[in-house]
Amino acid sequence: MNRFALFLLALPLMAASQTTVIRNATVLTVTKGTFQGSILIRDGKIVEAGEKVLVPDGARVIDAAGQFVMPGIIDCHSHIAADSINEGAIAVSSMVGIEDVINPDDIDIYRALAGGVTTANILHGSANPIGGKCQVMKMRWGKDAQGLIFEGAMPGIKFALGENPKRAGSPGGGFGATPGLRYPASRMGVEDVIREAFTEARAYQKEWRDYQAKLDRHEQAVPPRRDLKLEPLVEVLEGKRYVHAHCYRADEILMLLRVADDFGFKIRTLQHVLEGYKVAKEIAAHGAGASTFSDWWAYKAEAFDAIPYNAAIMVRKGVLVSLNSDSAELMRHLNTEAAKAMKYGGLDETEALSLVTINPAKQLGIEGRVGSIEPGKDADLAIFDKHPLSNYAKVTKVFIDGELYFDREKDLEERPGKEVRKKALVDKLRAQEKKERKKPEQTEDKKSEEPGGVQ
Amino acid sequence: MKHLITMLLAAASLTYAQAPGPIALRGARVVTVSGPVLEKGTVLLRNGLIEAVGENLDLPKDAWVVDAQGVTVYPGLIDALSTVGLPETSAQTTPRAEANAAPATPRFGAQEPAMPLEQGPEFRPFTTTWVRAADLLNPADRHIEETRSAGFTSVVTFPSTGIFAGEGAFLNLSGEKQGRMVVASPTGQYVTLTAHGFGTYPGSLMGVIAYIRQVSFDADHYKLEMQAYASHPVGQKRPNYDRAVEGLLESPRLLLPADNAKQLDRMIRFAAELKRPAVLYGGHEAYKIADRVAKSGVPLLVSLKWPEKPKDADPDQEESFRTLELRDRAPSSPAALEKAGARFAFYSGGTAAKDVRKALKRAIDAGLTEAAAVRALTLSAAEIYGVADRVGSIAPGKIANLLVVKGSLFDEKAKIQYVFIDGVKYEPVPETPPPGDREGRAAPGGVE
């Protein structure tokens, strides 16, 4: 009887601490080698990974015989899941941030999951030398905006060099062009905007320090005006916010590294960085990471010198390299993007997988949480039916924090039911419309500028 | 002869009448809202106020007693968000289509006059916080009579153009003198999140949000600066006067747009972050997160303009499940809010005044109780704007704003007999065809 009572008490506890074992899989840990074995997950974390893992009573067991488990893919450059991306008319838009416009309803989140992606860095667009604040998110499809945020990830900010920020000031126009022109209109101008902004930021930082000093001396003082444009730049100066800089050409890359050195801050990642192979040593010396495309090139003048060996060459020169998508479509097969670095440049399997797992995790400062299969890390895992570096591989299941967020079989099973539900709804609304039409027509209020029209 | 006709016409258009002394509506079903429903109640009005309400009132000798058997007396309805009473030009500066444009849509060649893009803290684009609806009233606005004829005695009217559009006013639709119409002002600051496209700042939704945040911080800072200066003006640098933050500071609450679940969640957070009292408007997808709305304590104004299939929709365009579901379930939002215990009121949101009852019926068919529907249209709206001590229910001392219906408000065929506004009786005008539709208008292209 006593034992029975204890058992009853234990039930809710077990539900709260859901335990899952994935077994019989080929486990690609990325950092600790590859083996045939199991992964034990509890409370959203990887507890154990090895050839022989004891299965606790009551654990949910997923048999992954013949399948491959890798760490959830991390995309260091994406623009999904946000209601706006570009604040384009001003040269410095650091006051805006993706965190304010997270869109948890974006179906691209689910599609990213279906490609094995569990974390993505959502960036502001590239219309401004200094752009808006980024947001690292987990692809927790179904959660609300706050539920998508990668809690504790370092904040970031977007910079952009070259064509995009200067085109906004070009009289020729084009995407992002501002009627009436906007400064800058040249690469020189881009550098000037960044230098000027950080000069302002330093003055602003001093204003606050002086205010703090006054308080410390117990003097009365009105605090300085908070400036939402300069606050994030002060954070950059103080090493509290990562810079992710969109760039292409070697000259502009060197320019930015010099500017950062002059002001005493670090560029965390160079994004796209298609000519990175030309200045890989300098990039490595600064300590910047590089997040590039596998083999996109020549889509605009500044991308003419791109080569598919870029990632591999930078890896060999000691740069921390990742491959990103910058596209909701490419995002769904970053595993094959990684595989291309084996064909072009001869990286080995682990090096290739690192480009979309542990390396982007390091670039985003979240490698303590994700990016490899190791005890203590978040149970963010992607199961593929074939080796993920094969272009025949499909994702079968994706876990985030130990929770199943994508299940290919379940998705396929549910499709007919969804179709039926949708058809029923369409029919219902159509019948309603018909009924409405029979009634005398409802006259619209002519004064249509009622307030309350929403967004 | 001509003069006589003119005089007769003038007399006919006088649809209101001032009683000589106190009025008693006797024997009516009285829905007091703040108290119990009285099946055989009497309401006594004097000097524009409700003097007494009850089942067995001792009526003063001079009272003009109206036998009100078979009618229901409600508090006058309140349209909680409106532009009624404003001159049309001031409300029409922003084309409607633009206000509804998707935030991410870039719009080239902006129509606004060229504006410098970055000017520092003094740059306040799309901001007229200081404009007061109460100062702009047009008692001749034809919408006043239309709205009144549908049973509304009050509207909460706001300027509606810009990001910070201006300060609203709680109005009685008495439509005579501007100053007499205003019950309370300012009632709040009307905020939109209209993104103005690539050519201007703020051009994106996140830009608009960041801008609102900055102005809010600036207002807090301005207050500190002004207080510090006021206490020691001598020998101190004088802070700049800033009408934009003045307007924000004198607004008792912010009205923030939030229609779907994502926006509701976003704006509830934003309001908490700004540390300013807020009221949300929109609310069509509130059925999804009614509990969250209730828990936040932020009141929600639900638009009675339920989503419809666009009239010019491409018949081959397949709509998403989400869109269809919203169209189907939006009218269930009020019921969900009632069940969750959220604070909510209604606004017509562009629904013609005479169709408001039809729209309301859809909410009731979807589960909203009649009691909650009446409350949302009366006392809740008054509470949200902080004027429930004066309007919104039938109780002694309150302003005599009443709606008198032959039967029940929720019976679509039941006729609205009259309304009282500040104790003055107005009869509904018969529905007329929209001007210019039938007789009395030359055919297009006529050359007579």
Structural class determined from secondary elements of chain A: alpha/beta
What is the C-alpha radius of gyration of chain B, as a whole number of Å?
A: 24 Å
Mean pLDDT across all amino acids of chain A: 91
Q: CATH fold name of the largest domain in chain A, please? A: TIM Barrel
**Domain module tally of chain A:** 2
Quote the average pLDDT of chain B: 87
Query: What is the CA-CA span between the terminal residues of chain B?
Result: 27 Å
Main interface: chain pair and counts: A-B, 61 and 83 residues
Counted beta strands of chain B: 19
Explain what this protein looks like in three dimensions.
The complex is a heterodimer of chains A (455) and B (448). Chain A has helices at 2-16, 107-114, 145-148, 163-167, 187-216, 231-237, 250-263, 280-286, 310-316, 334-343, 349-354, 358-363, 408-438, and strands spanning 19-28, 34-42, 45-50, 60-63, 68-71, 73-78, 117-122, 130-138, 156-160, 242-247, 269-272, 289-292, 320-323, 381-384, 395-400, 403-407. The longest helix of chain A is centred in the last third of the chain and has 31 residues, at 408-438. In chain A, 33% of the residues lie in helices and 20% in strands. Chain A folds into 2 domains: 14-71 and 372-413, Urease, subunit C, domain 1, CATH 2.30.40.10; 73-370, TIM Barrel (Alpha-Beta Barrel). Helix content of chain B is 29%, strand content 21%. In chain B, strands 1, 2, 3, 4, 5, 6, 17, 18 and 19 form a 9-stranded mixed sheet that branches. Chain B starts with a helix and ends in a 22-residue tail after the last strand. Chains A and B meet through helix 13 of A and helix 3, helix 6, helix 8 and helix 10 of B.
